[in-house]
User: Fold this.
Amino acid sequence: MRIIELDNDTDFEGWRKASRRLALNDVKPSEVAWTVRRDDELSSASCANELPDTPQAQFNVSAKFVELAKAAILHRSDARFALLYRLLWRLRSHHDLLGATDDPDVAEIHAMARAVYRDIDRMHAQLRFREIGRERTAHYVAWFEPEHRIVELAAPFFAGRFADMPWSILSPDVCAHWDGHAISITPGVAKSEVPSEDRLEEVWRRHDNGLFNPARLKVMEMPQAYWRNLPGDSIIKPLIEDAMRMTSGPFIARKAIEPQRQDQPMARKQVQDKQAHDAIAALRAEAADCRACPLWKDATQIVFGEGPQSATLMLVGEQPGDKEDLAGHPFVGPAGQMLDRALGEAGIDRARVYVTNAVKHFKFVPRGKIRLHQKPSTPEIRACRQWYERELTAIKPELVVALGATAAQSVLGKITPINKNRGHLIEHAGTKVLVTVHPSYLLRLPDEKAKALEYQRFIDDLKIAADQLGNSAHAA
Assistant:
């Protein structure tokens, strides 16, 4: 039995080099045990470097396996090193192994990677900095207890988001520090070493209290273990208890057992709406783990579609912008406000429309404190098209309006010129499609007269959609 000792718990390069040498020397997975060097322990393990060189032998693995391995190695499972080497061993003779989703090893590594990515998403969403010191001497500190060893991988996101302020992220595993130029990593610390509450703490408490909505309460959605990562952790339990009291009293109980009489068509429609709602909720949860293109790495979160599942009209935009990326909702920034105004003037109620984007993650280039929007590439549009298609299947709208060239490319499956195709309905795969400009195009027009003319054309396009839906309603 060969015992291979790695430098630390996330030593991917050490594992990669050792695994490659082991595999080239035909050392079977059952003949290898993996361990991690501890500072207070004397090493008695062997090293893969003791094996002879085999310069004439070589093999390659796919980039997909490398990406999975880099994520899975951050998982806290003690079996991760052995699992990865077992997969590497098998990939030498079974190059399509990663596509066998029913294989136990493949399923396990994907589950590990998803757990790590979810933990990174939670860190991006939940981490809150505390201001220590004042003005020029201020430093920002955050505490986070991750489920897996993700701090080093997640830290560059905060360097991009808060590039102009010095910060430290403290955790039991390692600590990440940003000085405005580079990230440095130091050993982990105990929570008792974290600075005490400061003047920003009360701001975050008021923020969390103001956002709390009892009607959307899902107690089981976030494990209590994650409450300790929130600055408002001390108010979460009282807020939940108050909500439970409001929704579990005698009045609610009495109303719940009263029989509700309704005709069959209405009951059938409610069942269909619930099924569609469940389908969209499941899609949204699944899409949160999407890694089909690299855009997820820098975005704050995925921005999925929203709206009634019984909507007869679906609006498809390009991608979330800066405001949408932070809020987690589509069309809430300046372009969204212009869209709302134009819909109203066209006689369409935004609340009855399902709104989504062709690409679900924000693509941008940082410029100091500003994140400049970047147009999604064709591979990114194709990678995200599955979510639009599945939304379309769940909603089943009578009409899809593609806002801009990116949306038109996603909806119609090919590059589609806007001016040549706007103003009339297009039949595509059993769905009526209307192509028009994106509201952000109107915002970028420098000439006020041109902007007014284009805005009116935009409203005219939306009126075509309103007329089509009105005609469909009358026909029904």
User: Anything to note?
Assistant: The chain has 16 helices and 14 strands. The two ends are 74 Å apart (CA to CA). The longest strand covers residues 431-436. Confidence is low (pLDDT under 50) at residues 199-208, 250-263.
